[in-house]
């Protein structure tokens, strides 16, 4: 350990340069070991053995790596999701784990709302088609196109972000359904939405479905072929949550080609960057049948200049509290 330092905190990687903000929050008595890699195989055992805590962004954390972390008092992820973290291995090693849920709420909600409004108003399809109009400019209306207050939005997952989406939807007059069995009775009254007791009810009644739930044993593939078939014909789907919620691109392509699904907007995919698939090829090539109906953004719904700073400071603060008080806030204990 460097002279004058009391603790060693490892940082696997993050999106923005060197960990200067983290160093500021963690303090002068902390030595930072910046691995600068998402490849867990490159993390040397002797470096892992020195760590009092580890901060993780995009790297995987499996049993082999965890077995070397004999001094570690906690692992903190910069983001919210933790699909790449082996919680069982951490639990077996006696190392608690925390995520970072209190950043980016506004950004993801804004991103989802922008997708909802743009697809509902069919802006991207207007843009795609208008390039070829040579006459009768204003007569090229797209139908159907209901008013906002004649449409129903189904929000799957009414936690922090889902609630922020509900609050943003209200001024536009949408009827809002919410499905979240984890929320207590009366939550819908406090927030202001109609509770759907069953997911199938929400899917069948909603003109637009927006996903804001984690990917777990109950939700992975929630919109597979069967889930998509349960959607109201002509529905719109928005996913700013987890790629695993719509992991069947074959089924998504069938639903879009048939017209059963009017449009989809996706910020998260199972594989990123996405590989080869006929649906993705049609999207990349702006094929006429799909133009303006599939919107994909590169997993950046969470981002703003302010959120990026907030994310890093919050994660580092969680580590600092752990080192000072032995308490890990935002601890994740769910093993699903």
Can you summarize this structure?
The protein is α/β, with parallel strands linked by helices and about 325 residues long. The protein contains 13 helices and 12 strands.
Question: How would you describe this protein?
Answer:
The chain is built from 13 helices and twelve strands. The protein has 336 residues and is an alpha/beta fold. It has two domains: 7-103 and 305-325, Rossmann fold, CATH 3.40.50; 105-296, Rossmann fold (3-Layer(aba) Sandwich). It has a seven-stranded parallel sheet, with helices on both faces. It has a five-stranded parallel sheet with strand order 2-1-3-4-5. α1 packs parallel to α13. It starts with 6 loop residues before the first strand and ends in an 11-residue tail after the last helix.
List keywords for this structure.
2 domains; 33% helix; five-stranded parallel beta sheet; D-isomer_DH_CS; Rossmann fold; alpha/beta; DNA-binding transcription factor binding
